[in-house]
Design brief:
It contains 1 helix and 8 strands, in the order H-E-E-E-E-E-E-E-E. By secondary structure, the protein is mostly beta strands.
């Protein structure tokens, strides 16, 4: 599922104005310690995304108050959780974070943004009646 989403994001967003790629480290909004992902901007505030990280890989929908700027980001995602034998366990999450833009590097063909993110996530790992509230704190780089 994630592979197909990433291929779609690369094909549809190939013009460089509607896509982004990034790396986050910390406790991310997708319950990863480290992750890499792609996003495809649908309009000024919503985007589709796919991430591969440790311990989850997810695809979902994100709403941002200000795309690639300071502001709130709300997202919903579904995917697979790494259980020791591979990405086999189903999982889902919802998160609300505030992101601070710490800086950027711009050249003629792309822009790299540096963000600090903090917020709260609710994570479901497939076990009946088990939902985990988890704090989020991460730093990341976004290229678009």
């Amino acid at each position: 599922m994630i592979r197909r989403l990433i291929i779609l994001l690369l094909i549809v967003g190939a013009n460089g104005q509607n896509w982004g790629a990034g790396i986050d480290i910390g406790i991310t909004e997708n319950f990863n310690v480290i992750e890499s992902g792609f996003s495809f901007k649908k309009n000024n505030s919503t985007s589709l995304y796919g991430v591969l990280g440790m311990p989850t890989m997810m695809a979902g929908l994100s709403w941002q108050q200000h795309f690639h700027q300071n502001g709130y980001n709300f997202s919903l995602g579904i995917g697979r959780y790494y259980n020791g034998d591979g990405y086999g366990e189903k999982c889902a999450k919802t998160s609300l974070v505030y992101q601070w833009k710490l800086g950027d590097i711009t050249d003629k063909s792309m822009q790299v943004n540096i963000f600090l993110k903090s917020g709260l996530m609710v994570f479901y790992d497939g076990v009946p009646k088990t939902i985990y509230p988890i704090p989020i704190i991460s730093i990341g780089y976004s290229v678009h």
